[in-house]
Amino acid sequence: MIASPLRLGTTAALRSSLASSAQFTARRTGYRYYSAVKPKTLKETFAAKIPAEIEKIKKLRKEHGSKVVGEVTLDQVYGGARGIKSLVWEGSVLDSEEGIRFRGKTIPECQEILPRALGGEEPLPEGLFWLLLTGEVPTEQQVRELSAEWAARSTIPKFVEELIDRCPNTLHPMAQFSIAVTALEHESEFAKAYAKGINKKEYWSYTFEDSMNLIAKLPTIASKIYRNVFKDGKVAPVQQDKDYGFNLANQLGFGGNKDFVDLMRLYLVIHADHEGGNVSAHTTHLVGSALSSPMLSLAAGLNGLAGPLHGLANQEVLNWLTEMKKAVGNDLSDKSIKEYLWSTLNSGRVVPGYGHAVLRKTDPRYMSQREFALKKLPDDPMFKLVSQVYNIAPGVLTEHGKTKNPYPNVDAHSGVLLQYYGLTEASYYTVLFGVSRALGVLPQLIIDRAVGAPIERPKSFSTEKYAELVGAKL
Question: Which CDD domains match (predicted)?
Answer without folding.
Answer: ScCit1-2_like
